[in-house]
Amino acid sequence: MRGRNCSLLIMMLIWMIVAGCADRQQSEPMNYDETKKMVVDILKSDEGKKAVQEIMKDEEVQRNLILDQKTVNNTIEKTLTSEKGKEFWKNTFEDTKFAEGFAKTLQTEHEKVIKRLMKDPEYQGMLMDVLKNPQMEEELLKVLKSKEYRQYLQQQITDVLSSPLFQPKIEEALLKAAQQAQSKQQGGGSSGNEGGGGGQ
């Protein structure tokens, strides 16, 4: 809870700083890059770090955060859903590096959740119940028989077979199969010759 409150307060501070600077420079509105640089510089500066630390140590601030959580949440929600907030997040996610990092973080967390769920007996039972549901089975069969799925599967197989990582494995498997077939043929020929020689 305290970690969440700290994050909320820091976000509020950032937005108050940005809003204050924007009001003072209405004649020359700040663009996204300028705003981003300003916020980063403030947070990285010793003064900025010290200010945040001092605020978080203040007993009244801590008490208000605990007692007035609803107000804090409402303030953050209004700030993030305001026109300025929407524009800020829109520009932020257009930054390819930020978007990539954010996506990787979500993917990692998602994978962790899935792995934990797959080890959970209760979740396993629920999943099996869903898969055994006649309606679910019918829908699954429809998907597997659909033209779109067959095309998707063919494309996936083509991609796998074309993969530089997979091709050596295919070549190795084919070579091994050919050697085994050749060994069987040679073994069969030897047996036949021995049988013919015995008949004479």
UniProtKB/TrEMBL annotation:
PROSITE patterns for this protein: PROKAR_LIPOPROTEIN
InterPro entries registered for this protein in UniProt: GerD_central
Coiled coil regions in record: none
Pfam families assigned to the protein according to its UniProt record, in alphabetical order: GerD
Domain spans labelled Spore germination GerD central core: 65-178
Signal sequence range: 1-21
Sequence ranges of Gly residues compositional bias: 186-200
Record keywords, A-Z: Signal
Residue segments, region Disordered: 176-200
Top-level taxon of origin: Bacteria
UniProt-recorded name of the protein: Spore gernimation protein GerD
Originating organism: Aeribacillus pallidus
